Write the structure tokens for this entry.
Amino acid sequence: MKNKKEVYKVKPLTEAKKNIISTLIQEYDIKTAEDIQEALKDLLGGTIKSMLEAEMDEHIGYEKYQ
């Protein structure tokens, strides 16, 4: 018998998480799935860029513009 793939279990929403979600909905005026995608791009875009730049700095051995 094959091993069953583990299914992600959603964690319960705490009051703090509900407040964060409510704030994000208001801040980004989220009404559709597309609005959610745009908000995530805005929130994660800078973070991902910084991570990739740090990885490249580590790979080449020096920081950009040195």
Remarks:
- Residues 57 and 63 are 5 Å apart (CA to CA).
- The chain has a mean pLDDT of 89.
